[in-house]
Design a protein that fits this description.
320 residues; alpha/beta; Spore Coat Polysaccharide Biosynthesis Protein SpsA, Chain A; 2 domains; 9-stranded mixed β-sheet; two-stranded antiparallel sheet; 11 strands; 15% strand
Length: 320
């Protein structure tokens, strides 16, 4: 009994971490997602599942996990959509000091992700988030960005340096971002309804403190036909452009005019390149293909991807 009391007291001394699992009709994947969160070796943990009014068997599948007192389950009475469900989960359901979001079709591959991140947070000052799974980003940052090496695989950057250097590192992963919940709410997380709502949130948060980059791969992003990045290409350019404008407007209070101007120029190019890449790789409509051809200067590999896209569409048509 004395040992159990001591263990409980130690747990309460640790910052509480919430793993959010927003999900919608992901019965095929949700078990792997939940099991990967419960395999984390961190003690003071809650797992909050926010079911966005699924019409499949998600709610029945989840019931057995509720025997674990770390797991909480909420089902929205009506479908809110991806970003609004993120927002509701963070603001209404999560109670942790720190939060990481794991979509219901993804899963963790490193059981020490949370404990390692919290140790980094406690060992360094004014950390607003830790971003893992950025191996190439860390390699580029070592060469191009002002930083402090705090471990074999980790770098400490001021949030401003992270912000200004993003287009040099170019790596961001929602499922491997552990962030301060109260500061995130102050900034206004998940308020931009776009594919990059998570990035829109994190970039503004970065400017309020310091960030840590880790080269460890801690989670797996599952790709399939229902991914938002595949299904929402038709609104990609407009919504993402708006998101970057909002980020820049918020950054004005932290950056010099010349710094902001350069960042805006880089962001415009980045959004266009990502849009072209998305259209090229997801095999979308001929209308979007023609729009890209008539409005953007394309690199050779983009043109090659478009040719493959046309051939894919022809094959699909011939099979019908």
């Amino acid at each position: 009994m004395d040992f159990e009391i001591a263990l409980t007291n130690n747990i309460e001394l640790l910052p509480k971490v919430t793993i959010m699992i927003p999900t919608y009709n992901q019965e095929k994947y949700i078990v792997e997602a939940i099991e990967s969160t419960l395999s984390q070796d961190y003690l003071n943990l809650e797992v909050v599942i926010s079911d966005d009014c699924s019409s499949d068997a998600t709610s029945e599948i989840i019931q057995r996990f509720l025997l674990d007192n770390r797991v909480k389950y909420f089902k929205n009475p009506q479908n809110l959509g991806r970003v609004r469900n993120y927002h509701k989960t963070l603001y209404d359901y999560a109670t942790g000091d720190w939060v990481v979001n794991l979509d219901g079709d993804d899963y963790f591959v490193d059981s020490t992700f949370i404990s390692d991140s919290i140790k980094l947070i406690q060992d360094n000052e004014n950390i607003v988030f830790v971003l893992a799974s950025c191996n190439e980003g860390v390699k580029r940052a070592r060469k191009k960005v002002k930083h402090t090496s705090i471990g074999k695989e980790e770098l400490l950057l001021s949030g401003k340096d992270f912000f200004l250097s993003f287009f040099k590192t170019r790596e961001f992963f929602h499922h491997s971002l552990i962030y301060n919940r109260n500061k995130a709410k102050e900034v206004g997380f998940y308020v931009n309804d776009s594919l990059i709502s998570d990035f829109h949130s994190a970039m503004r948060l970065a400017l309020r403190g310091n960030v840590i980059l880790s080269s460890k791969k801690v989670a797996h992003w599952r790709t399939h036909d229902s991914n938002s990045s595949i299904t929402e290409t038709s609104t990609f350019l407009i919504k993402n452009t708006t998101a970057f404008i909002e980020i820049a407007n918020d950054a004005r209070q932290f950056l010099a005019q010349n710094e902001l101007k350069k960042w805006e120029e880089e962001s415009n190019k980045f959004v266009k390149d990502r849009y072209i890449l998305t259209v090229a790789l997801t095999g979308t409509t001929l209308k979007e293909f023609l729009y890209v051809l008539s409005n953007f200067r394309l690199k050779k590999w983009f043109i090659s991807s478009f040719i493959k896209m046309i051939l894919r569409n022809l094959n699909i048509s011939n099979c019908r």
